[in-house]
């Protein structure tokens, strides 16, 4: 069982919490091994929307596969954010030091900064306080006007509904894009958010169209992106010619062919594996590349 721990700060925004919580709760309902906990420094936590929440004082025992999420809170400036104790900051640092992932939604990035987890890493937050975040943590690289960032198991998002996209991205990285697509479909969320973040899920970036034929082709590619899927077989499976499928696919996805889409899925999964200690060669084999040089070329192209 993987624990998802939400650390609740007084004045938190309900959607900053509810969005990611719904993603992982829906994933758990679908059979994925997640258990959600809500932790705070006090048992009753007021929210920005006036609904008090109840939390536990002690977090469960956490391991490297577990995640701590800090939802954002209402504040005009980060300097006016609620105070937290040293035990809270130590909890965040120790979890990350042991190989775990920490995430901050909106102003939640500031709490990660207070714990020293933003230094030397890319991060983002709501556009209203991006400049202040950069001033408060000059050793961090604040990426402005982007949906979310992830850097060495430190994940931050722009705020409010973007927490849903952050959680779907993490789910896709752990279980593949099909799992995230199913959860998004169950939640009836729009399966794409503009943001310009290169590590955003390919499923989120290229699913905003209304072409049923292309969606069916993407479903097949999502489910078996790590296996060969020749264009003739894909076209036959969705009931159109190769030429028609290529034309529809490139139009719907803004220029991607089915092969390039599959490569995007493979690259995304490979980057996750590499970020968690897998070698490039092993990651290439795991995502379906027969020759690791292809993965190296795609990674080089993606960083240009």
From TrEMBL:
Domain of life: Bacteria
Pfam families reported in the protein's UniProt record: DJ-1_PfpI (PF01965), HTH_18 (PF12833)
Cross-referenced SUPFAM superfamilies: Class I glutamine amidotransferase-like, Homeodomain-like
Keywords of this entry: Transcription, Transcription regulation
GO MF entry, a single one: sequence-specific DNA binding
Protein's name in the database: AraC family transcriptional regulator
């Amino acid at each position: 069982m993987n624990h998802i721990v939400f650390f609740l700060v007084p004045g938190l925004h309900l959607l900053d919490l509810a969005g990611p919580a719904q993603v992982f709760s829906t994933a758990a309902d679908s059979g994925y091994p997640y258990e959600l906990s809500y932790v705070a420094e006090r048992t009753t936590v007021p929210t920005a929307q006036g609904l008090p929440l109840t939390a536990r004082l002690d977090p469960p025992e956490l391991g490297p596969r577990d995640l701590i999420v800090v939802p954002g809170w209402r504040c005009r400036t980060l300097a006016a954010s609620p105070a937290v104790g040293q035990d809270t900051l130590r909890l965040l640092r120790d979890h990350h030091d042991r190989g775990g992932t920490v995430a901050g939604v909106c102003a939640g990035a500031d709490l990660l900064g207070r714990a020293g987890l933003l230094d030397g890493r890319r991060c983002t937050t709501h556009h209203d306080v991006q400049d202040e975040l950069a001033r408060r943590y000059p050793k961090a690289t604040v990426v402005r006007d982007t949906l979310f960032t992830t850097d060495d198991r430190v994940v931050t998002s722009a705020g409010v509904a973007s927490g849903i996209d952050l959680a779907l991205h993490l789910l896709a990285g752990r279980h593949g894009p099909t799992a995230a697509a199913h959860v998004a479909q169950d939640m009836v969320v729009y399966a794409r958010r503009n943001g310009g973040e290169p590590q955003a899920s390919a499923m989120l970036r290229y699913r905003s169209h209304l072409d049923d034929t292309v969606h069916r082709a993407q479903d097949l590619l999502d489910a078996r992106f790590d296996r060969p899927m020749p264009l003739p077989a894909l076209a036959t499976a969705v009931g159109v010619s190769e030429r028609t499928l290529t034309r529809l696919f490139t139009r719907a996805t803004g220029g991607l062919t089915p092969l390039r889409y599959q490569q995007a899925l493979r690259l995304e999964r490979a980057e996750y594996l590499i970020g968690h200690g897998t070698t490039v060669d092993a990651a290439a084999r795991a995502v379906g590349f027969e020759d690791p040089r292809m993965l190296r070329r795609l990674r080089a192209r993606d960083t240009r």
